[in-house]
Amino acid sequence: MASEAAAGEQNFGASQMSDGEETLTPLEQEVLDEYARLLGNLNTLSSLLLDLSNNPSAAILDGLRGLERKTSLVFTLLKASVYSIVLNQQIDTEGGSNGDDDNTELRD
Description:
The chain is mostly helical. The chain folds into two domains: 1-55, no CATH class; 57-108. 88% of the residues lie in helices and 0% in strands. The chain has helices at 2-18, 26-54, 58-98, 100-107. Helix 1 (2-18) runs antiparallel to helix 2. The radius of gyration is 35 Å and the shape is rod-shaped. The mean pLDDT is 80.
């Protein structure tokens, strides 16, 4: 990858040298050099991201497996809690209709 960046910089410099009529100020040359370095860095970054996307690391996969286990546990606990709430409401509703007289005595 560094060789690609160096080749890009060499090509850039060669195209500049072919223009014998125009000379660049030191500031313009510095800006062009920075652009060439930026191009090399972006090419390196692009290749690294391509490698990462093609070959997911084992650490990421292990982390995702752990997260999947925790998520399924939370989902199971949530279902159990909802079932418990619904069951308690049904018991209260059935108990309330059978024991209305008891509730009225307690309110007075």
